[in-house]
Specification:
2 domains; alpha/beta; six-stranded parallel sheet; Rossmann fold
Length: 206
């Protein structure tokens, strides 16, 4: 990487967290009846309910209660605490790069979940900005969310590196001039720069 890069934009799911797509269906399978699970699966896949929550069209309470979890706060926390895991290398990585790069979080997520995840894992101190899809009403890979990230950081695209686990999201970022790196947890095919761990990412950033 050349020295002109000043800003490192990071995805949450599949990068900072080990789980690329979360594990909400696994949580539903373990905590609901079979018939209720089938209904939840349909809501997620066919009705795209998570996408609606990720766009801020419904909040976490409405989302979880629609899925069948009346005590939405309890089940949100149980899901995050027991089904999502922080990459074991991330905190050390963040400590090592925080004085060299401005760290920015760019995540498709439910607003309340993102807030809880960041607090639970002590992530807030590392990020100068957090752009959460439900709060800004835009989801990756829309080009608008990358333009918004640049606007909020006050940086040019050529100062920024974006790390995501989705090639589709990286292609969109590259369209606006941001340098992309794939954090490849799922052996996804990608033509560009790829890493498989935060150790590899740190070595590239140098």
């Amino acid at each position: 990487m050349i020295k002109s890069y000043t800003t490192l934009i990071l995805d949450m799911y599949g990068v900072i967290l080990n789980e690329p797509k979360g594990r909400l269906l696994a949580y539903a399978r373990d905590n609901l009846s079979e018939s209720e699970y089938n209904r939840v699966e349909s809501l997620i896949h066919e009705n795209r309910l998570f996408d609606k929550a990720g766009l801020g069209e419904i909040n976490a309470r409405e989302f979880m209660q629609t899925l069948g979890f009346d005590d939405w706060e309890y089940h949100s926390k149980q899901y995050i605490d027991n089904y999502l895991t922080l990459d074991s290398e991330f905190l050390d990585f963040a400590e090592r790069v925080k004085d060299k790069y401005e760290l920015v979080l760019l995540s498709n997520d439910v607003a309340e979940w993102s807030e809880y995840i960041c607090k639970k894992f002590g992530l807030n101190k590392y990020f100068s900005r957090k752009i959460i899809s439900a709060e800004v009403k835009i989801r990756k890979p829309s080009l608008e969310i990358y333009d918004l990230a640049l606007e909020k950081t006050g940086k040019s695209p050529y100062e920024c590196i974006f790390v995501d686990n989705s090639a589709q999201n990286l292609v969109a970022a590259e369209e606006v001039g941001i340098s992309p790196i794939l954090f490849n947890r799922e052996n996804e095919h990608y033509y560009g720069m790829t890493v498989y761990s935060f150790k590899e990412l740190y070595d590239i950033l140098g």
